[in-house]
Hints:
alpha/beta; binds 4'-deoxy-4'-aminopyridoxal-5'-phosphate; 31% helix; globular; seven-stranded mixed sheet
Amino acid sequence: MASATAATSTPHSILLQRPTSTAAPRTPTSLRLPARAAKISCTAVAAPSPSSPLTGAGERGVYNFAAGPATLPLSVLKKAQAELVDYRGSGMSIMEMSHRGKEFDAAIKKAEADLRALLAVPDTHEVLFLQGGATTQFAAVPLNLCAGPSDPTDFVVSGSWSDKAFKEAKKFSAAAVAWSGKDGKYTSLPPFDAIKQNPEARFLHICSNETIHGVEFKDYPEPKNKSGILVADMSSNFCSKPVDVSRFGVIYAGAQKNVGPSGVTIAIVRKDLIGNAQPITPVMLDFKTHADNASLYNTPPCFAIYICGLVFEDLLAQGGLAEVEKKNAHKAGILYDTIDASGGYYICPVEKSVRSLMNVPFTLAKGADFEKQFIAEATKESMVQLKGHRSVGGVRASIYNAMPLAGVEKLVAFMKDFQARNP
Ligand code: PMP
């Protein structure tokens, strides 16, 4: 097993000891070690047992902190693997069969039903499985919701992604910045009454979680526009916690962070907003095309939708999104606590009240060279893809639903150990 090999061959293998799975983490072993602990090499490290917290990503030999595409639940991957060659007795993989056949029809219907159950999606809203990534929705939303390019729209620009959404919307609407966090380097969110909403705006757009900057809305502003429409890009915190869908005109999310592989984008659209797209709207960007055809107008991303369906089943089996949110809050809590207790060694620039439970960006006060060293040593310790986004640098730990608690426990133990060795 890959993890057993990793456990015996890395210099800091003490960190690979089975972490505790209890809610209150023990003082990490590394803190009790002398400053030169990295030179100690232990060979008798316990390999993960099936019941240990290392099962999951740990069983694969790495904890994957990627921002997306990101780690998926091992149980989902194993189920997909078991069904890959012969999908449920059909003699075909789900990639090889008609999207209009009974097997795929059942898979997409089940995926939609389970997502509706997870998010308690009301009957007033359509669930659409689309293509083109969340980036395509940056254009599709104003194309569907505005009568023409002179219709005003409002954007809260809280980071790179909402900035991209705003810039794209300018092509298809009279988009305005209702609030910008740029001067504060995107480390905060506005008090809601500081958002300068245009009553004539067709919608107010937010990004519920900025994947690069790590700011997350904990509640949502009321749209003050006459249409009463709030739109959210939820790509990086979709299905990480319960959301009152009825408050939104449109929610959209690329799947590749919390719910599946890249290739499918999920949109949840209030039904009365469908059917009024601008005349120039390409058929593939018109919500009506997909709503009228149950997301089967053309060939959908079948495999991606199938995997999302398996993830939805897994989230329901965990007890639903309220349970999932508790786990996410605990994981993020121990990571932020470690940063805040480091005496300024690690710095998370984001205002505490809006820190993301999904993406935790931080820097090292000692500078970029130490960040490089930190990332390189973490990689040797099997904690991979921790590099901050190329636009901001630093370190970023993405800890989506499928990141096991053991992965975050191992990261915080490593952070304390790194600090002790490099004071
Ligand atoms: N919005 C957010 C919040 C994102 O994190 C991303 C991707 N990282 C996007 C939009 C763009 O998504 P896609 O690559 O699916 O177009």
